[in-house]
Amino acid sequence: MMELLLVMTIIAVLSAISMPALRGFASTRRLKASAQTVRNLLVFARDMAITERTGHLVVLDLDREQCWLASSETFDPRNPLTSVITAGNARAPNLGSTAETAQQGVSRTGSILGVPQALEQQITLAAVVTNHNGQTAHVNSGVEYVYFSPTAASEDTQIYLQNQQNKVMSVTVEAASGRVRVRHLTNEEIAELGFEENARSQ
User: How far is Cα of residue 157 from the mean position of the Cα atoms in its chain?
Assistant: First the structure.
């Protein structure tokens, strides 16, 4: 009986020690998955702009932690929310890799245009810094967008995603090429950008 109690005590202690680490691991995994969702959608928009010779955009709703694909033919920059489908049963398919989406045919945007894709739980779109018509926009609420032209050009953009442990990842779009990169920010960069204060105020 004493041995059983000792084993149970050891298990309880080890569980108590490991739980914070497991929570941190799960939160980091959700942050990475959310950054990958945003990246995939940006890459898809760039590819579609080139393939269909029509400008495409990724719209980011910082209040609802959502993003979706829009076409420049129907997009209204004065009211970006008009490009979202509000039907309750509308669901976006998993974009996967560029190679996978390339096999879906020329009409592959039909089922995902305007369909919101939510970030993982407890992950926020902390801020978006972009450039429209030569003017830099730094927003941390409301709706913002990233445009891709038929030549693959875009606008210099940084999208910041944050988890509850105050870890931050950036998704960067290069203006000239429209290339998309994802990376973790260092603690120094997080402090410099003011995300520590944002986390404390939430």
Answer: 13
Do the strands 168-173 and 180-184 form a parallel or antiparallel pair, or are they unpaired? Answer: antiparallel
Asked if 162 and 123 touch (Cβ cutoff 8 Å), the reply is: yes
Phi-psi region of 121 (alpha: psi -120 to 50; beta: other; left: phi over 0): beta
User: How many CB atoms lie under 10 A from the CB of residue 131?
Assistant: 13
Q: Three-state DSSP class for 32?
A: helix
- Kindly list the distances between the CA atom of residue 188 and the CA atoms of 7, 165, 184, in Å, as whole numbers in the listed order: 43, 15, 12
**In which residue ranges of the chain is pLDDT below 70?**
12-25, 86-110, 196-202
Distance between CA atoms of residues 11 and 124, nearest Å: 35
Domains and CATH numbers, the chain: 2-201 (3.55.40.10)
Q: By the 8 A CB rule, do 62 and 125 touch?
A: yes
* Token pair belonging to 61: 């709703």
